[in-house]
Amino acid sequence: MTSSDSEGVELKHDRPTYVFSRLSPNLTKVVEYDSFTQYPFLYLIHGKDKLVLLDTGCGSGDLAGFVTSHELNPRKLPVYVVCSHSHFDHIGGNWHFSGPGGKASFCVELAFGEGRRDYTEHWKANIFGDQVKDFAITKWLADGETIQMGPEPDTTEDIRVIHTPGHTPDEIALYYAKERRLFVGDSFYQWQPIFIPKDGESLDAFKGSVSRLLTLVESEEAKDSQASPIVMCCGHVDDFLPARTALQQVEKLVSGIQDGSLPHIKNTAFGMQLDEYRLDSFSIGFMQDALAENSTCCYSGSGHTHQ
């Protein structure tokens, strides 16, 4: 991992289930070493009066106990859970925070984007979704809504919600201006295919999301040319991906798919045929399956992580 202060709990096969590293004083990354070999990245954003947890992984261990431990949460702040989308390796630990019987005492909300409630509420239909324990969604986040990180609104401290359909219809991103970080779930990462349903609509939606995020990044960077460039924190593989360069590259990749200039490669993932298109370090994969929308997953599970 990236830091000498990494710690873990719940040994599994002589390896901790959860390992954390400090990306900054206000930001912690948690990697889950799960039996599905998804190895999702979960992020903790430390605010003045709450701790925002982005995604809950596959549910391999006691995530709630881990993130509320003294080492990760010494001020005993309540936890506000946000799910980037409704695939199993991002919602598996939700039940620890908000089960069918109600929220845990330390949980403020368990939130999803409201862009496609019908899709989100049928999360069990997604691949491995039937293995996720039931949970209760307590809040739906509107596009453009902010998550207030202190007692008073603060445009620098607060987190902006951005609907980014494509990988799934309910995907969202979070922008944290204080750290110049864009949390993108499974919309972007390198070296493994970004899965998109082969339904004739999702690629167009993804293209719109890429364009929208690129506009945001360019606008924010133009406000202060002396500030550090915005980086993307992804749900797998990358926790420090230069946002502008990555978005421009993925924009070219999508255009190459749509205009037919990029050849596709026959591949497999999760036992299904995959049409994959590559451009440099990025690729997009379309499942060749009648249930493509519910068969797309988050990551093909090579176990590669950003160092």
UniProtKB/TrEMBL annotation:
It holds the Pfam family Lactamase_B. Residues 39-236 form the Metallo-beta-lactamase domain. SUPFAM superfamilies: Metallo-hydrolase/oxidoreductase (SSF56281). It comes from the Eukaryota. SMART domains: Lactamase_B. This is Metallo-beta-lactamase domain-containing protein. It comes from Klebsormidium nitens.
